[in-house]
Design goal:
Blueprint: H1 2-12, E1 59-71, E2 79-82, H2 88-105, E3 111-113, E4 125-128, H3 132-135, H4 143-146, E5 151-156, E6 159-164, H5 166-181, E7 184-185, E8 191-192, E9 200-209, E10 215-216, H6 226-230, E11 239-240, H7 249-252, H8 255-258, H9 283-302, E12 308-310, H10 323-331, H11 337-355, E13 369-375, E14 383-385, E15 391-393, E16 404-409, H12 425-432, E17 441-446, H13 460-472, E18 475-481, H14 493-503, H15 511-523, H16 527-546, H17 563-579, H18 583-586, H19 588-601, H20 603-612, H21 619-636, H22 649-654
Parallel strand pairs: 2-3, 2-4, 4-6, 10-18, 11-12, 12-13, 13-16, 16-17, 17-18
Antiparallel strand pairs: 1-9, 5-6, 5-9, 7-8, 14-15
Helix pairs in contact: 1-16, 2-5, 9-11, 14-15, 15-16, 16-17, 17-19, 17-20, 20-21
């Protein structure tokens, strides 16, 4: 494994640095910015030497043992205590702890409410949340720092406390289970947990944890259901969209409803809104703004549980180029996002005033963030670098209001290279260019080739630099979007999802250590074989990107994965199954889970063989491969080879005629 890792490092070292110089236009109209330097020009730091800032995150852990016993000779005197008026998340915390404690020890701990209970040094409680036991213990919990999802694990006397707000207590319950029984969720079905525990000392805990990224959304297609929760992903999205999915403009202001009376509200193609309505501040602009405010108020009133509302452009690579929009864009330095910022600021100002007034009714006092995109035609911020090399606003009015959040979603970029790599210079500068615009960020990244779901995308190189950079800017939500049309993703995607679950919690996590941990825990004796297969794929992807020059487009080149490479990879995976064969009798549940996982990893090389090399097999070899592949697809319920019409897996299977 170390040898292959060195190969990857060597290959990555041959990347060359290139700069694209673009023209610079300065109209200076009504702008305090002076001359604007567009993205792609100017003096840049040496990205080879640039380091991501070390962040001051809160992961304080002191763990030792006490003289007390939590479990003695297969029995326990401890009681689980919960608040009498507990929440759904608190109930989950208590229930998960109860179930997994029983699975580890065979003991069913009593669960009681806190009514009439108080702390004493000799009482044996495991307390969840703001119970009377905690309140009477004189423990000072730093709820302000913990926020909604942080927690503290504290030992006092003979009792254990999981303290925090509701969701924080749920995450704390899983951490406590990890401390006690080495509990970790690795895949959608597989977790580790010490079993048959008959004796266990009470730990001495002083743990304080706050997630670095507040809302951690899992990649699609690998982790689901209960596993999401157990990996401390947020299964509930705090952003609401009014039935418009991710791109919501037309769920508020649609051409079907408004085009006839207000054509100036739309581009001529009707693909996007015109956010100046032909003239910023004019009569039609005011009408568009008033109607949007009205619609947004209605949606906020319907959605009582969430606090971020998407007001986001349509999924079309087009922006309005009417005279009114062009004038605003030129005035603020050439960034399309300028028209969006002006409109969204006006919208957010009126929504905030309404929420603070009696007219808001039950919504009075709510903190609603309006979410806008930095996406497609609005990736570039209306900022420029000053004489010190720092980004500054092109004009003061380009600063977003405090109740607006920017959703950075750079679709046309290379997610396989670190943001600190020379080839990522433009993307890094695009992201950093937004820093003066707002303090509120969320990020939507892309972790899959949407046209080629069965092909691997080597985002391992980039993931930590993306996460840390956005964290340093204040990002509260991060989603590495995956394969959303299939129930599961091949090519070691489960490893990626595990890493993200840890990395989004602590952006300084050691990814190499997490990779070692994953393979050792999941594949046991077959870990060296499976980890070698993983590094083989990583090394091949690095070779494709650098030596063959495919960059992030290697999925389009069949010769990137040779017939011999695919066959060798399949042989490695099958050898791993044979190493684990003894578990078929000794631990059939584990054997089924692990061999299913290994079989699923063969989909990628078998798909490449059938798609690119089917004519090189004799009839017996080809027929056996087709039969095996079709059975795999049937068992795993893979529906799509990629996003869009014509990419149905069934259509590909129909091309595989037996010889």
């Amino acid at each position: 494994m170390k040898k292959i890792s060195k190969i990857i490092a060597t290959l990555l070292g041959v990347l060359t640095f290139s700069t694209t110089v673009t023209a610079c236009t300065d109209n200076g109209k009504n702008s305090s910015a002076g001359k604007v330097t567009p993205i792609g020009t100017g003096d840049y730091v040496n990205y080879d030497d640039l380091e991501v800032d070390d962040v001051a995150n809160i992961h304080e852990r002191s763990i030792s043992t006490t003289s007390h016993k939590l479990v003695t000779a297969g029995a326990s005197e401890y009681v689980i205590v919960k608040d009498e008026n507990t929440s759904m998340d608190m109930e989950r915390a208590v229930n998960e702890f109860y179930v997994l404690f029983q699975e580890a020890t065979g003991i069913k701990l009593p669960i009681v409410t806190d009514t009439g209970l108080t702390y004493s040094d000799n009482a044996k409680y495991i307390s969840f949340g703001k119970t009377n036991v905690l309140e009477s213990s004189s423990i000072n919990v730093d709820y302000a720092t913990l926020g909604s999802q942080g927690y503290e694990l504290i030992t006092k006397g003979a009792s254990l406390f999981v303290a925090g707000e509701d969701l924080g207590v749920l995450w704390g319950a899983y951490d406590l289970l990890d401390v006690l029984f080495d509990f970790t969720m690795y895949t959608d079905v597989y977790y580790t947990l010490n079993k048959n525990v008959k004796d266990l000392a009470l730990p001495a805990l002083d743990v304080k944890e706050v997630p670095d990224i507040l809302y951690r959304k899992a990649p699609n297609g690998t982790i689901k259901d209960e596993a999401l929760q157990r990996m401390r992903y947020n299964d509930a999205d705090p952003i609401f969209s009014h039935g418009g999915g991710v791109h919501t403009w037309y769920s508020f202001i649609s051409p079907e409803e408004y085009w006839e009376d207000h054509p100036s509200w739309f581009t001529l193609s009707k693909n996007q809104l015109c956010l100046t309505a032909g003239e910023y501040g004019g009569e039609e602009y005011q009408l568009l703004l008033e109607e949007t405010v009205k619609k947004v108020k209605e949606v906020i009133d319907k959605e009582q549980e969430k606090n971020w509302l998407r007001f986001t452009q349509m999924d079309i690579v087009e922006w309005c180029n009417c005279d009114g929009c062009k004038e605003i864009i030129q005035r603020y330095g050439g960034a399309n996002s300028a028209t969006q910022i002006l409109f969204v600021n006006d919208l957010a100002e009126r929504i905030e005033a309404w929420l603070q007034s009696d007219e808001a009714g039950r919504n009075k006092g709510r903190d609603i963030q309006i979410v806008m995109f930095a996406y497609h035609m609005t990736e570039e911020a209306p900022t420029h670098k000053d004489a010190n090399g720092e980004y500054v606003l092109n004009a003061p009015e380009m600063r977003l209001r405090d109740n607006v959040t920017v959703n950075i979603a750079h679709l046309f970029t290379n997610y396989t290279e670190s943001l600190l790599d020379p080839v990522q210079k433009n993307t890094y500068e695009l992201i950093k260019g937004w820093e003066p615009v707002s303090d509120n960020y969320i990020c939507w990244a892309y972790d899959v080739y949407f046209g080629h779901y069965q092909m691997p995308r080597d985002t391992y190189n980039a993931m930590q630099s993306w996460v840390k950079t956005l964290y340093n800017m204040g990002a509260q939500w991060y989603w590495p979007q995956g394969n959303y049309q299939n129930p599961k993703s091949t090519a070691f995607d489960s490893v990626k999802s595990f890493i993200y679950s840890k990395l989004l919690w602590n952006v300084n996590a050691d990814i190499n250590a997490l990779v070692d941990e994953f393979f050792t825990a999941v594949y046991r004796e077959a870990a060296p074989i499976m980890q070698n297969a993983y590094w083989d794929v990583r090394a091949q992807m690095a070779y494709n990107r650098t030596e063959l020059g495919y960059g992030d487009d290697q999925h389009k080149h069949s010769n990137g994965y040779t017939k011999r490479f695919c066959i060798n990879l399949i042989d490695e995976l099958e050898r791993a199954k044979r190493v684990l064969k003894n578990y078929e009798k000794t631990d059939p549940d584990y054997y089924k889970k692990v061999t299913d996982e290994i079989s699923f990893e063969t989909i990628f090389p078998k798909y490449v063989l059938l798609k690119s090399y089917s004519g090189t097999f004799n009839s017996d070899e080809y027929n056996a491969l087709v039969k095996d592949f079709k059975e795999l697809i049937s068992v795993t319920a893979i529906r799509m080879t990629g996003e869009g019409a014509g990419k149905e897996m069934q259509k590909f299977l129909e091309t595989l005629k037996l010889k």
